[in-house]
Prior knowledge:
- The structure is a single chain.
- The protein is an alpha+beta fold.
- It folds into two domains: 94 residues, Beta-lactamase (3-Layer(aba) Sandwich); 105 residues, DD-peptidase/beta-lactamase superfamily (Beta-lactamase, 3-Layer(aba) Sandwich), CATH 3.40.710.
Amino acid sequence: MMEKVGMDIQKTYLTRFGLLSKMQTELPEVKAPSQPKVWKEINSITIAFGHGVATTPMQTAVAGAALLDGGELIEPTFLERTQAEAEKTEEPVVKKTTSDAIKYLFKLNGETGTGRTADVPGFHVGGKTGTANKVIHGVYSHTLSFNSFLAGFPMQNPQYVVLSFIDQPLTGLHNLNLAAETAAPMVHDIIERAAPLLGVKPDFGGQALTSY
């Protein structure tokens, strides 16, 4: 798939999401993403499936929010602002139809896939697990991992994203150390406590999945 798209388009796409440049916020202490100094075909191939570029958690969350918010990337801030002020910073990164497809996949994964352990009854949590081999002295480990879970809720009309990550978990649910057993349950616990505080009303009516 990467070879069909091409390296230049791949880099442009990741740059559009802000994943290859240093994020600008009110705090200057932000680490720039890591990426190959010179992109070669092998780098482009491994980056396509998640190895070779490392970003900050906020960059990942902002990109995820854009995918779930109609394809519009909103400039992050630590300060309070109105919705109108936030919308002035919007930059389109993908088509709305693409965003709708991603929302469908997040919702489906939260209901029947690896994201089931993140779901909280009534709050319809969807998301994507990430189980990455940890790099030890420049070599990918076959036993240690860096796990994450990027979630949105409520998936009928996403209002929030939650990103959890756990470095080098040794065990989790069912004595496994995959993201579904470690990072996803963390999101469950966060949303279970935070959603009521945020004023999100639980919905137990249930809605049928829409096919794309």
